[in-house]
Amino acid sequence: MPIKAIKAIKAEETAKDLSKEEDSDTQHVKESDESSSDSTEEEEEEVEEEEGGVALDDLSEEEVDEDVVPQQHVTINNKSVLKKIYQDIKLDVPWIETQAITSLEPANIKDINNDIERELTFYKQALEAAVEGRNKTTELGVAFSRPDDYFAEMVKSDEHMTKIRKKLIDEEQKIKASEDARRKRELKKFGKKVQIERLQERQKQKREDLEKIKAMKKKRKGIEDTAVDDDFEIALEEAADKDNRPNNNRPNKKQKTGKPSKRTYKDTKFGFGGKKRHAKSNTAQSSGDLSIFDGGKSTKKKKITKTRPGKARRQAARNKRQ
Amino acid sequence: MATIFKLAKAVADNKEEVSAEKKSTKNKQRVLALSSRGINYRQRHLLNDLEALLPHFKKDSKLDTKFKLGVLNELAELNNCNNCVFFEVRKRQDLYMWTSKTPNGPSIKFHVQNIHTMDELKMTGNCLKGSRHILSFDKNFESEPHLILIKEVFTHIFGVPKGARRSKPFIDHVISFTIADNRIWFRNFQIVEKDPTDPNKKFNDKDVSLVEIGPRFVLNVIRIFEGSFCGATVYANPEFITPNQIRHSINIQKAARYNKRKMAQSKRQLKIANIDMSEDSANESNKED
After folding, report:
1. Less crowded by CB within 10 Å, the N or C end of chain A?
2. Which family does the entry's similarity section mention (chain A) (predicted)?
3. Does B145 reside within a domain?
């Protein structure tokens, strides 16, 4: 702690002593030890700052130290006058006149920004008062709750209350809808899993059946000469049946779910699905293809075969004919 | 002569006694509620809510001045009120609430923060208009002399006296004052009884639940004065920071950001200006190479 602060505290202590002696003293410096017990770090800092300055009024001339910054803002807490004023205005009436109840335990909120904790403390205090107040009034024989047939104007109008109710219902529905959506999403995820599992199972079954048939055929080859076993034949047929069933069903299903013929025709003509972008742009293969350049050359050089003979030949031919 | 004096004195004494007796058994409170000019809608609604909840409130038109508050004592007297709640609005945003025992004091000045009115839809409770309520105070109110005084003033102002005009004889809500974070938190709850059929049954926590009606606000004590809207300060809250100061510090923070940016800009311009772009310098650099 800096020397200045220590000096200040010393000065403050002497000032305190003075104020204790003079009961009528109206202004005293804020006592740091009162608030430091449950104060946070910030508050402690504040207190230290305040300790740095001492009220001008409390310093006698000898004690004035140039190092100490004089404190301009003097804390006023004139307890004796406050008590006197309280005595003056205090109501001395039966409880039912004021219906004020003080809680048994002081409210202690650790974090003021924690809404739930704070409101719960308020709620508990009010609840305690409500229960105690109710018991006290019933003891005194005063009506507490309103009878069912007593109708009167309320603080909030019916219109307002319907608004509140509507809002509550809306909120409930919102929550319900979001929950529904979430459930559906999860079901969908789960459903897909089930579908895949079923497909895999079917394939596995098919494979097993085929293997069975193969094994049986081998077996049969081995015992070709022996008489045909009835059991084996039946088993084979059963296996074949099992194997065929999905095959038989498939085309039907396809017909059912398949597209109309017009659509399929259009799809073949104009194309369907697949990537549409970069279809016309070059690929490594297309740019590496140089065949078109060769072809161009060859077409240029190609001589057109003349069907008409030259002039000399034609004349010679004419002479021959004549 | 002496006998006449004695007689008169006896009568006067008797009267005083009677009045003292009456005073001791009856709680007579009337509260004048009014605001200064420049009140905004939320604060006005708060004042209206208080008037709706407390039947012994008497609302008056807005006061023109913010400086000569002494006239409020006369106004209260004109309205037969012995208490006054005055909403002083500064800069159309800061609300200060004066609660005063007119005409002799004391008066307390609060800063009102975090106002929520009854019109908000999240507060679902409702109660009879003008029904009496139970006042609930935190135990902390008994820890300090100034809090004891505040509690007493609040019992006068926020407690509906028995048999007050326009009040209804049933109790269906609780108004609670709690001290937290060196501030006073105001809450208003409806009392919902699970089984109201048996009126003589002793109640415990499980038979009653509360639903908030509103309004809500937080009071921060600034000063307590000895007189009503006048007199010496007997208590001043050392931790109170005025909203102006808070806004000022926020502005300074914002200004710091701006200054930093401007400084960076000017630095950059200086740097660009100092770079020599003439041909000589270019040649020199080539020679060096």
Report:
1. C
2. Belongs to the EBP2 family.
3. yes
